[in-house]
Design brief:
alpha+beta, three-stranded antiparallel β-sheet, about 190 residues, DUF3793
Amino acid sequence: MNKIEYFSDIDYIKAKIYYHIAPTLKGLKPSSIVTLTKDKRDLCSLWDLYKNQILLDCGLDYFELKRDDQSINVMVYNKSYLIRTIHNSNNLDFLFQYGYYKSMNLNEILNRLKQRFVNVCPHEVGIFLGYPIEDVKDFIKHPKKPCLITGYWKVYNDLDYAEKKFKSFDKAKINVMMDIMNGFNFTNKNYLN
C-alpha cells in the first residue's frame, strides 16, 4: 500500500477504490461500499474529479449513499447482479418492512436506502452487499446472539459458506492489489469482472 502513495491522483484513487471493491469487480458480490475520506489525500475531491472515469474503466455503476464535510459513502455495484439480488423474493419480502416496494425501480430503491443512511448505516444494507438473508435477519433481530465468526459480515448460520466467501473476497483483493503493484493498466476492462 505504501507504493501507491507515489501514484498520480487518478491512479491513486483508482487503486484505493479497486482494492476495496475487488469482490464486486470479480463478480463475487453485487455491490461494495467504499468510504472516502480527507486523510492523507483528499479522496472526496479526487472522487468528485474522477468518479466517472474510475467507474467507466471498470464497467460498474455507483450511488452516493451519504456525504458530509469529511467523507463520502459510495456504493459501487454491478447493476444486473444487484437487481437480481434485491428482487430475490425472500430479499424483497424482507426489505418491504423497511419501506422498499416491489414496484420500485433500482434508482428508487437506492434512494430509499440513502434516506435510511441519513442517521446510521441501516442493517438491511447487508442484502444489497449480497450477505445471506438469515445472517442479516439474525444481526437485526438478535443483536446479542453470539456469532460463529466475524469477517465481511457477522455469521450466525452457515459457517462453511461464509468462510469460503471470505476467502474468495480476500483472494480478489490480493489479486487486484498485486496487479496494481505490477503495473496493471487500469483501462483493461477484460481483466475486470
